[in-house]
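User: quick one, fold this
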Amino acid sequence: MTTNSERPLMHHGVARELGTEIIEGQWPVGEARTLEEIQERFGVSRTVAREASRLLESMGLTETVRRRGIVALAASAWHVLDTTLIDWRLHSGRRREQLRSLTQLRMAVEPAAVYGMARCASIHDRALLLPLAAELRRTGEGGLRQEFLQLDIEFHRLILTTSGNELFAALSDQIASVLAGREEIGLMPSPPKPEALDGHEAVAEAVFHGDAKAARAAMQLILDEVDQALDEAD
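Assistant:
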């Protein structure tokens, strides 16, 4: 049993393991577990078990029911845009499903976001995509995977946050999570496909010139390539 010297974030590890079991169906919907069971299984204090339970509940994975304990909830109750939950799902046995749903979200949002950026953003913000696209090509062709990933996240985040739509901007962390997760689980082509690099440059050029329709079409091509890559990986 751990004591006051236990690590402050230990409950995250406990919650992640339990949450992954819910995601993968190993902890069935409607089944209850108690704090005592969690304490005994993980060898942690009641405080850690309670904090893990609260974290799961904050993401909609569980609810606490009097006289029953901690009850697993169906996916319809999950806070699916929570970035921690996205990360857990991407690293679970259901990662393909999560990647598919997140890619569909991107396909719905990002073409509209880049259309808005080309129409509404300042010339200063529109110009920022050009050096990012150039750096994406340099790092992508140079095999600098981590640098490429961070630039890719910055590229797509800039589009969402300068789209003129606050709802699109609010999704920037979620899009960053799926880009990072795709790399972490080995589904990001290395080096990037030439058409992906070409696509980012086409987006940047179209946005800079305020050509909203061309920017939207170029972004759609990028996302079509991502969608095709998922089909090929299945």
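User: anything notable?
Assistant: The first strand starts at residue 32 and ends at 33.
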